[in-house]
Structures are given as structure tokens and as C-alpha cells.
Specification:
The chain is an alpha/beta fold and 334 residues long. The protein has a single domain (27-328), classed as D-Maltodextrin-Binding Protein, domain 2, CATH 3.40.190.170. It has helices spanning 4-23, 41-56, 74-82, 115-123, 125-132, 176-184, 197-203, 213-218, 244-249, 252-285, 297-308, 315-328, and strands at 28-33, 61-66, 88-89, 139-149, 151-154, 169-172, 188-191, 208-211, 227-230, 235-243, 291-294. The protein is globular, with a radius of gyration of 23 Å.
């Protein structure tokens, strides 16, 4: 039998030991891989997400962000995510189309009237249906993040009408929709990783590309493709995803906090995308080499008619009902 004093001493030691273990327990680490620069909408939103997760979980969860394809390109990141080598990624929607062809909805040209229409689709029934598809591949779709609407840039000549793009080689992401889009205007689509675009333009492997203003600015594509058409023909955005097994193992309280952080980081991303698009457009146009073509309403109508003609090719792959539902979301939006 322990004496009263000895017993109290042992209890005190146990309390100290438990406190020490709790205090110095290792935090849960989320490796977050993406391919763009830090000063893009996605880059800024990823860092903001990491900041608020650490604050709101009191350091119990740490998000380590790896930008600029430091760990993986987008395609490799998806595979790494499925194996839980990383726990979060935010690839462009086009990067998922080999696994989840319905995501090609977001690649369809002239589908969305504007950002209001786009976000109504993302935040409504259509967006929820698409996020649920990720369960097929052992992932959890958390949110849609913006970059922006795309412009065309090339290093050959100004492009005003679709016929002006005939014969040019354009870099595209691995999306059948984007390939058909350029074929429809007589151009040649070339699938290349994002990290190779600058050198491909510089060396003549491709003549042009399509990107939001933030990508043109941060990757300096305008230096090697100065002819820029303000077409806003399509959208480039991302899906924030996590590994399903990792997600299911998270304690319920931490999961709730992280979901709140996802919501706030998504709102932050959208504001940054809109802000940076205006700021970086202005900075690009300060370069005297950049030649801007701004389309008239009539010229945009020509582009829209030409490019929307590819929709029927994807009725079975994407789902005609899904496409029509997305279009219907914009019926009351001017």
C-alpha cells in the first residue's frame, strides 16, 4: 500500500505526464499541392486557407502549401491525392475530365453569361451534383475556386474573328471540350503541362494559349504571345479536393472547423480573382508590345455561334440534362 503522500505524488506525476503528451501531441498535417504562382487567386486563397485553419484549430491542424508544382503537376497531384501522399489539391476542372467527364461542363465555351451565372451554377444543385461525383475516385469535392474567364493570346497576328485562328497551334489542357473548341475554329490543339507553356510559346512548339489575366501576368506569357484577344469565351476554375480516407478519419469537430475555413477561403478566392483580373490586365496592357483586341457585341456573337456548335458532341459524355440545367440557371441573368 502507498502512503497518502506517495500516492498524491504519483497522481501528480501522471497528471503532468498526460498534460505533457497532450501539449506536445503532433498536429495533423495537410499537404496542399498546386501548380500556380503564390500571387494568383488560387495561390493567395491557399495561403489564406492555411492561415485560418491554423488559427481556428489552435494549431491542431497545419496546412503546408506547395505552390508552383513544387511537388507535383496537376495530373500527378490527383494520383498522389488518391494514395494520400498529399491530402489536398486544387487542380483545374479540366484535369479531372479523364476520370470524371461530367466536369467538362465547365470547359464548354460561352456557357456562362458572367460570374453571377457561373457562381449560381456552382453553388446550386448542379455544383452539388458534380462535387458528389468525386466519391467515385476516392476523393471528396469540397469547393469550386475561381481563376477567371479566359482570353486568347498568340505570337503571330491579331485574332478578331474565329477564321483568324485558322492554322494556329494552341496549347490546351487535357480536355476533349477544349480540343474540339479549337478544332471548330480551324486551329490545332496541343495538350501540354502548364509548366511548359512559356517555353513552348518561346520555341514555337505552340503559337498561342488561352488563360485568365492572372496566368498571363504571373507566368509572363504576354512576353512571348503579345497579341491578345479579350474574348472571355470560356472559364478556368479549380476544384478543391481531399483524400476520402483522410477526410473520414478527421475528428468531427476539426472537420466542421475546416469546412468553415473552406467556405471562407472560397469567398476570399472569388474576391481575389475579380480584383486581380482587373489589376493584372492593366499591368499587362502597360507593356507596349502587347496588342489588345476587344471584341464588339456582334463579333462576340459570331464566336459564340461558332463555338456553341460543339455542345451536341458532349451531350452523352457530360449529360444533356446537366448542360441544360446549367444554362437554365442563367435565364434571369442579363
Amino acid at each position: 500500500m502507498f502512503k497518502k503522500g506517495a500516492f498524491s505524488f504519483i497522481v501528480a506525476l501522471l497528471v503532468v505526464a498526460v498534460f505533457s503528451i497532450t501539449s506536445f501531441a503532433k498536429p495533423i498535417v495537410i499537404k496542399f499541392s498546386h501548380v500556380v504562382a503564390v500571387d494568383t487567386p488560387k495561390g493567395k486563397a491557399a495561403n489564406y486557407f492555411a492561415k485560418i485553419v491554423k488559427e481556428r484549430t489552435n494549431g491542431k491542424v497545419i496546412v503546408k502549401v506547395y505552390p508552383n508544382a513544387m511537388l507535383y503537376n496537376d495530373r500527378a497531384a490527383i494520383e498522389a491525392l488518391q494514395m494520400n501522399a498529399i491530402q489536398m489539391a486544387c487542380p483545374s476542372t479540366a484535369k479531372f475530365t479523364g476520370w470524371l467527364p461530367e466536369l467538362q461542363l465547365f470547359d464548354l465555351p460561352f456557357l456562362f453569361k458572367n460570374s453571377e451565372h457561373l457562381h449560381k451554377v456552382m453553388d446550386g444543385p448542379v455544383g452539388q451534383k458534380i462535387l458528389k461525383l468525386f466519391k467515385r475516385k476516392g476523393m471528396v469535392g469540397l469547393a469550386f475556386w475561381d481563376n477567371g474567364f479566359k482570353v486568347l493570346s498568340n505570337n503571330k497576328h491579331p485574332i478578331v474573328l474565329p477564321k483568324d485562328a485558322k492554322g494556329l497551334k494552341f496549347r490546351v489542357m487535357s480536355s476533349k471540350v477544349l480540343q474540339e473548341q479549337f478544332k471548330a475554329i480551324g486551329a490545332s490543339p496541343q495538350v501540354l503541362p502548364f509548366s511548359e507553356v512559356y517555353s513552348a510559346l518561346e520555341q514555337g512548339v505552340v503559337d498561342g494559349c488561352e488563360n485568365p489575366w492572372s496566368n498571363l501576368y504571373t507566368k509572363k506569357f504576354y512576353e512571348v504571345a503579345p497579341y491578345t484577344t479579350e474574348s472571355y469565351h470560356g472559364y478556368l476554375g479549380y476544384v478543391l479536393v481531399t483524400n476520402q480516407i483522410f477526410w473520414n478519419k478527421l475528428p468531427k469537430d476539426l472537420k466542421t472547423i475546416i469546412l468553415g475555413c473552406v467556405k471562407d477561403a472560397t469567398a476570399y478566392d472569388r474576391k481575389e480573382a475579380e480584383k486581380l483580373s482587373k489589376e493584372q490586365r492593366a499591368l499587362i496592357l502597360k507593356n507596349p508590345k502587347v496588342k489588345l483586341v476587344t471584341l464588339t457585341k456582334e463579333q462576340r456573337a459570331v464566336w459564340a455561334k461558332k463555338l456553341r456548335a460543339i455542345y451536341p458532341k458532349f451531350y452523352k459524355v457530360i449529360g444533356k440534362d446537366l448542360i441544360e440545367e446549367a444554362i437554365a440557371e442563367g435565364k434571369d441573368i442579363k
